[in-house]
Amino acid sequence: MLRGLIKGDNAFVPTAALRVAVRSGVDVAALLVTEQGRVRGDADIVFDGAPAHGSGAVRLSRAADGDEEGTVRLDADLTAVEEGIARVLVVASTEEGTLRDARGLAVEVFGPDGGTIVAYEVTDAGSETAMVVAELYRRSGGWKFRAVGQGYADGLTGLAVDHGVDPGEEPQEAVERPPVQAPPAVPAQTAAEDPVQGARLTRDQLLDMTPDQIRALAQARTQARAQEPGTAPVPPVPSPDPSAWACGPVFAPKTVTGRHNDVITVKDLPPGPVLVELSVKGDGYTGLWPLDDSNAKGRYLVNSTEEDFRGRVIASVPAHGRLRLRLEANGSWEVRILPLAEARRLSEDRLEGWGPDVLLHTRGTADLTFRYKGKDNFIVYLYRLAGHTDPTTLPDPGRAAVNEIGARKETLPLPEGPLLVRLTAADGLWDARLKDVRPHSGGRDVDGPAKLPAARRARGWLRRARD
To answer: In terms of domains, do 156 and 273 share one?
Structure first.
């Protein structure tokens, strides 16, 4: 490894989209914690059951082509980490044996260009079953990496409690789920002793409840709190956030490289829309088309004469899971197939790009301002995902929201997310940012991720913490 650190060492890393590889076949998670070293809620846990943080800043994926067996990757876009988050902890754990048995446990950080920035190999693991291997943390207006290597003999339970995660109680036998749309029964004695908590349900009971049941429970607790003498009413808990990103499966990115014209075949993909990221080193014409089962070309995905083309487009994987593409390029090229969840998130911060791209809006109503510096077509489509439940298709976008030629500034009114913003033609530099962002009607705090849906997704991680 390059620039290897020892336990306790730290080094500055660029404030950019980084890739963190954890090796040795362990289970990997990330905790996004505040300055106090605690998560704000279960939404700040990223693991295989909830592989993307609500902000889009941290995502979990399996090894890419060329990685060693047993490698797990975390994509950490440090430019997108919310201001309330001070550190991103990289956590390794094992369900069988101890971390001493995990030979070659190591973490390596790669920059946007794919080069290694910093690395740390754990050499002193013992009987622990969970460990904070490393952390990315804010310092002096930038970010640093620290080789932590702090293990927990009591496993995820100790690690969870240390960072503000309540591992919950053991599930009780013969648990009955409360009736839908009705508040759970509150024993009189319990309510009198604790009017805010109401019935003392286990975490498993809460995680098994539907959103309607959770809202009913929140209403019951709010009413109990309002009846307590000398206590001001508490606003009800917001309903689950409908903007939670859940379109399309998460899978390990696949990479293919080559030179000049070629036919690209990528197998074992989930059916439905995926991102295709193409970069070409060279001048001349670049074209990309999907091929059907009879090898007939579909409508072009890329049609550009720009030098050193780069961009992201959407292709649809057939039901058999094999995507075939025809590429015409004058030079070396790289194609990456990514899940839609890899789309960059829009925010009030300026997001810069070059060429076609796919962006994701998950906030409330907002205005989206583009500044385009190219000389050719600039075309944008909007895909409203709210209520769209079929992961193998995208909804019809209708007419283009923008269809202009040449450099310009354009502002679009956006409905509530989730919404895909697809730049189908943009041969040139552009930037995008949100303004006048309103709270999501689903109750989402504009400055933070949704809590209730993420708590339900974190069930598997919390259950492992009890084992």
So the answer is: no
